[in-house]
## 1
Amino acid sequence: MSQTVKLAVGSLLVGLLVLGLKTLAWWMTGSVALLSDAMESTVNVVAAMVALIAVRVAAIPADANHPYGHHKAEFLSAVLEGVMIVIAALLILREASLAFLDPKPLIAPFDGLVVNAVATAVNGIWCWVLLSGGRRLLSPALVADGRHLLADVVSSVGVTLGVLAAILTGWHWLDPALAALVAVNVLWSGWKVMSASVSGLMDESLPDETLARVREVISTEAVGAVEAHDLRTRHAGRVTFIDFHLVVTGATTVAAAHDICDRIEAALHAAVPHSRVSIHVEPEHKAKHNGIVVL
């Protein structure tokens, strides 16, 4: 079992634990704000299941029907997770509006807040594990799951402080008002998750900093060539695809051109982990004089 799959399984188990704790906290208090927190955790569990399926599919080797691999399954997972986050937010808004029309005092509030605080601490620890592990393993599904948990942690802290304020002041309307604020925060989180994933599905180029590094590597390692042009990049899950045209002189043999390509590929693999490099070699008259200059 790969590290990515292990983290995805861990997310599912942690999600079930946190959901149980938050549901218990709501049952103990009757707080709509805590109910909204528990509803968001329901989405966490479903999202963890989707992420687990996605990372397993993404790990399937390339085949005849998918010659570039199955890496984009993780982006699809992240988009689906964003949609579920938005649905959860709408459900929370509904509960908040009903409770706002008929606010009620809380039952055993302090005990419930302690249980909810424990669930929030567990979520916070696992959020850090997911974000650090997902970035290290270049897994969009795990990073999306981690960002969602981060939003959950922030909203849970806000809910805890707000419910505490409602208890101390006796302003029962604070409880549904907090639930509404949680819903807005969840909506924003869902939008960010979906927008980041759509960029991957649309074959967005690498970030400017990484792209500059790629150009630098090609310029440095293409000694013996004339220039490189038509550089294109895209990312699919943890894999980065890089392709460009390399212009060589007419006196360059096939073997020599192949050696130059091998040298460039090795340097790009070192600079951009999990990269797939394709180089199209062209004769000198194909030079465009506006590409990457060879040092």
## 2
Amino acid sequence: MHQFTETEALSGIVREALGAGVHVVGVDRLRGGSKKGVYRVHVDGTRAASVIVYSWAEVENFWPDTEGIDAAHPFAPASGLVPFLAAQRRLDRLGGPGSGGTPG
């Protein structure tokens, strides 16, 4: 059985993002996200009634262990910092959103 993100952890994240006056009053784990947990966090102290929080913690990942898999394999996982940074650099070269360049 997986141990999912706890309300206490989500409370800290939500307070940091929305301010000290915001309090978590409920958490629902949503369907979807086989590599991440998806949570609807109900809050008070803000105009928003709820926010969505994604958790990429290892315990939320239902995919098999990828240790020892060649990254060049077409079905190798495309997660992690290295693929993210490679995609970000490519978008920057192409003038993607947030790159400061002009769209192609």
## 3
Amino acid sequence: MALNATGRASQPGGLSHAKPRVLFGVTGGIAAYKAVTAVRRLRQWGADVTVVPTRSALQMVGKTTWEAISGNQVRVEVWEDAADVVHVNTGASADLFVVAPATANTIAKFAHGLADNLLTNSALVATCPRLIAPAMHTQMWEHPATVANIELLTKHGWELIGPEVGQLTGADSGAGRMSEPEVIADRAIEILETQGYRSQYVGEPTGKTWVISAGGTHEAIDPVRYIANHSTGIMGVELANAALRAGHRVKLVGANISEQVRDTCLSGIEFVNVVSASDVYEQMDRLAASADVVIMAAAISDFRVASSATKIKRGRGLDLTFEENPDILHDLATNRRKNAQCVVGFAAETGDETHTYLEYGQQKAQRKGADLLVVNQVGNSAGFGDVDTTVSVVTGAGEIIKEYSGTKSQVATGIVSVIDQWCTNA
């Protein structure tokens, strides 16, 4: 394997280190705050990310944030840690060089070989693929000088991503909006994969597709109000992460999952955002056609409201008419969309004076027709949210085959393991 002086592989397929090294440059555009998301996604995928901001970029997002998100020390000037020859090694050791956002000023420096900070110095020594995401006002983007500078960059081997047409700073809109951070991160990952790198959090590919629903549905009462439940979607997200780690291709249908919870999804999970039970049914019906495993972990409202087209006013009384939502799990289980498909359901139950929560779950398992049902107790600070949980995995006949307790991540890993074993041996 041929290596250069810094230890970076100099030919595709010859990898000197397991984690790809990404140098992520950030310049002083207002879109710098979006770059935080791109850095996070690259790290979640498994890249070792070093952020090199310009002095102006630190006016937008501070050094502490970049160090916390990347997990690495942040340097700005050439003279920092001079004994380690940082101004050479930072760029030369990178497997990928990303700049987002890239202002007109820094683009001009790159194009003409100026080197007045650590970022521009690094650009002169980097021999890896380079991806740049411009962000600026439309007039700046269309100025002949910028047009000429972009032509020089592409001639020198830089790959351009964006900019897009859309809302800019203030009331203006037009060409110059930075591409969305998820798009930038996904393209960066594609480039790393062409070099032979794989996510550190994904097992050997199984060739299997898992479709998982998560979260809690919202059923509209009128244009303002809705009926909901306490589900946060954390368990569904952890199931998706565990399935991805097991090497499966994962598609997650998320109902009203907060951005904070969604951000814990590992890169590589295909996320579909939905709101109501009808939305969940539509997407699960569509995606199940290509799924080897279908998991209904979302908390689906049993009923929806015959909603009002206008806001219901105080003093007029509240007389709601309810309609049954489709039993999505039963439909998916009894009308399999693909041969040899494994269908798994979740049952959040409470006990009463006649039956325990587990007995109710076992009864539900026999009604639903799924291969497996995961039963968990809810209420009294149990079940919903970021809390430890205990579940029982039962067969379609109600037989308990596994029990797991611990954090939702730990429990999800156990559930994925038993699904893998059960569906392989069934």
## 4
Amino acid sequence: MKKIAGIIINSSNQLDLDALVKHRSIHTIPIGGKYRLIDFPLSNLVNMAQDLYVGVIGSYNYRSLVDHLKQGQDWNLSRKSNDLLILQGDRSAKIGQVSRISIQDFVDNREFFDKLSDDVEHIVLSGTNVVSNIDYRAILDKHDANQADMTLLYKENYDGEIQNKEVRLVVDGDDVKEIIYGNDKRQGGELFIDSLVINRTLFMQILAEAEKRGLVDFIELVDQCLSDYKVKAYNVPGYVKIINSIQAYFNCSMDILTCDTNLELFKQERKVYTKAKDNHPTVYGKEAKVKKALVASGAIVNGTIEESIVFRNATIHEGAKIKNSVIMQGAVVEKDAVVVNAILDKNAVVKQGEFITSTTKEPILIQKRA
């Protein structure tokens, strides 16, 4: 297989994630007990090919991203050999030009693309907020078999939230017939998951054309060129969730607690890698009761946990009750407190005897260190 360049793009709908992105990049939103959102697209790319360039387009709030990725060694990558580079990005969003896939991010990093070796044939663009275990090898095989110029990834009959900024594809067989933006009143179409495969030569041509015309949105340009290029579609099988809101994050977290979703995401030959941490095993006290929960290492549990995810180094005190909730790293639920249908961000504290409760349709988010 020829060398592949994978680009993890920024998400255009970060504002819908509210305080989850107040102190961190969207890439590093914690999920599933020990993972970050970027672990899914990055692992998908690493599982695709051994010979790989990866560029991660960051944001102005990039510190958490740099801290998480380090040198890329936990994904068998290395910044020293240019296998992994964190690229500048998010400039267009800061000046108000919000796009589905920002061409400005590619233009700002033109040097990265120019320096790719001659044997890079395909460029894979991947959304950073897509939770799925995607088999890119199968997608590349289909792309080549179709002799496609580009292949857009979509999820048929998507059952999650579709925000007003999402893009839908009108598909006929493997062909993309039309691209529909979220503000379009027309019905129908399948959810585009912000990921695609494109031939490198065409990508560079589009980049040059975009610079010349001052275009902002990559997908808008693709829409204008549907009749000029061979644009195919690929329906991603299995579990796919777009983390585009607090509700979507909560729903995805609850899905991970189900056996089918958990096995599909984490127990395949295509592993999901993350930053390694050496923690002591979880400590369960005499009064601890845990049912249908995912509890990461380093936690201390003396209360009751049911149908919830508890991250590393969280502390659940005696008499505390947790149900249908996400308790992030370092969060503390003190004695006799009750937390139901809530998300506690890192190092948040629920004081003794307090009640934090809501419904599954409107989960409460307690901010980081609150």
